[in-house]
Amino acid sequence: MSPFPGLELLTSDTISHLAEAFLSETGTMIDWTWNRESVKPADILNGMNTLAAGPIHYARFADQWQQSSTYLTWAKEALARADEAGFDMAISYAKRAVCRQIDGFVVHNHLGRLLGKKYTAKVDALKQIGLQSSRILHEDIIDPRNDIEHQYQPATSTQAHRAVDMADIYIGSTAHEAERGSIIGYGWVLSCSRTVCDKPNEQWERNEFTLPRNSDAMLLVDVVDTQHKVLILRPRAGELLECPLDSFTVDESVEFARRLRTQLKGNEGNHWTHTPVALNQLRDQLGLREFPCTASCAVNSPNVLS
User: Fold this and answer.
1) Cα-Cα-Cα-Cα dihedral sign, residues 70, 76, 82, 87
2) Which of 59, 143, 190, 306 has the fewest Cβ atoms within 10 Å of its own Cβ atom?
3) 185 and 160, same structural domain?
């Protein structure tokens, strides 16, 4: 007699069926096939109203740029020369440090449509989503550099010192925000096991994502391809709503970014940051990829950067 009464009633076929049912319910082994629907930005914004709060998911896709802190270091080194050429270079690098920081915030908040616009427009948009940037930056750094470059005016010691000081204050005061990265999702009911090998000449990463079939709706900004897309997944119904970010107007982009950032309140400590490899594996395992991945698949900045 079995030491576990009743277990002898379960045949191997029965156990197999029970295991398949359990794994399907928990999300493992599900062959995700979504009913995809292209929608308008307004539909995405309305759909966000139905999403529950949850862990915040981040990605970083401006790290391939030169860092603001590097430009600031170069500005200080140029300032130390204490000559006209040094003052000119100091203002130039101070401006570049500030502009790089601002553009990083623009890109990481899905406001790529503003790249190429005047910095006053970028600063105003960032203010609308809760990121304060003073117009003094324009007056003390950007305007003087433009005068020096386009009006062929000599740089002065006073201009250079003020530009470097203001850049230093701005880069320092926004360092935490710069480290945050880009919010690419929330409301996920995902579990993930991660295995990493960092041996010499053998580096790899494997992520196993599990999404239960009965999960509530969730949001994902797909930043793997050059054209970023906003996805709302409804696992219970097998539905996927998608809209390219470049379909959003500037106002819609600002509203989208503002809503994403509302998740930070009281929830910032509950987050994941995903590598490009993890995001590619997530797309594959959840059946989110429309087309086969090529060797160039990676987390990319918006196509407006190219």
Assistant:
1) positive
2) 306
3) no
Q: Which of 121, 72, 65 has its CA nearest to residue 92?
A: 72
Q: Which helix (H) or strand (E) holds 44?
A: helix 41-48
d(CA 72, CA 230): 34
| Separate counts of helices (H) and strands (E) for the chain | 11, 9
SS3 5: coil
**Residue 1: C-alpha distances to residues 12, 15, 80, 164 (Å):** 17, 19, 88, 83
128, 137 contact by CB (below 8 A) = no
| pTM greater than 0.85 (yes/no) | no
Average pLDDT for runs of 10 along the chain of length 306: 36 40 48 90 94 88 89 97 95 94 94 89 93 76 79 89 94 92 87 86 87 90 90 93 95 96 78 86 86 46 44
Structure tokens at 58: 């981040």
Domain count, the chain: 2
Using N-to-C axis directions, what is the helix angle for 41-48 and 250-261, rounded to 10°? 20
Which residues lie closer than 8 Å to 196 by C-beta, 6 or more apart?
204, 205, 206
- 91 and 195 share one domain: no
23 in any annotated domain: no
158 and 187 in a single domain? The answer is no
Domain with 168 in it? 68-180
User: For residue 169, what pLDDT is reported?
Assistant: 93
What b/e readout covers 51-68, taking b as 16+ CB neighbours within 10 angstroms? beebbbbbbbbbeeeebb
Residue 291 has what pLDDT? 52
